[in-house]
Amino acid sequence: MKLRSSRGGVNRVVAILLTLIAVMLVIIAIPWWEKFSYRSEVIACEQAMKSAEDGLIIEYLSRFKEDSVNAAMKTLDQVMVARPNICPAAGEVYLIKNSNGIFEPHCGLHDPDAKLRTRLNASRALELLREGRRRARRDNGGKEPDAVQIHLNCQSLSCERVQKAQRLRRGTATTDNFEGVVAFYGLAGEGDFPVEGVAAGDIFYFVYADEDHCAIWRANDGWTGDAYQT
Length: 230
Prior knowledge:
By secondary structure, the chain is an alpha+beta fold. Helices cover 43% and strands 19% of the residues. The chain is built from 3 helices and 8 strands; from the N terminus they run ααββαββββββ. The strands form 2 sheets. Strands 3-4-5-6-7-8 form a 6-stranded mixed beta sheet, covered by helices on one side. The chain has a two-stranded antiparallel sheet with strand order 1-2. Strand 6 and strand 7 (214-218) form a beta hairpin. The longest helix is centred in the first third of the chain and has 62 residues, at 2-63. The radius of gyration is 25 Å and the shape is globular.
């Protein structure tokens, strides 16, 4: 009986140790898997952007010119029917003319130029904020919302209304009390914001920051922030 009890105890200890080892292996594997998945996502996005770029070059050479971003987007729709899904993570697709006058696609999530990524996303976020704010005011009888929800890079982002400029000059990873992607806006004539460059009640101030960089817009000064510094 004692021998059986001893064996049973040993078996339980072995089972517990095996379970602990399995848990540790999972804990170790999760970061590795996340890093591998992200890298695979980046590679797939790069390949998709290259295919889109090749398609735009072919269309450009056959037509000799593209007059506008809208025309280029329509061309991209023709050469890549599923344009909204070009990036495997549904990142925004932006088109910018290169030195040869040909539009090139850039991904709002994976473009290797982090500052360019921030600038493009910030500009798009401000555009979406203006549209969302108009809808919110219309649906609430002209009442100004405290925040406007927008959809950028397949993620929801809350643009919060503030009374003074935020303490953001760099990315959130190097700024205390902020994390991830954030956005704030202020209205002319409210709080610390003057009526300058726009009418009272219009958006005077907007700041967008991701982990890497920050972009700040003021109606009387345009875009600044470390995303615009060389």
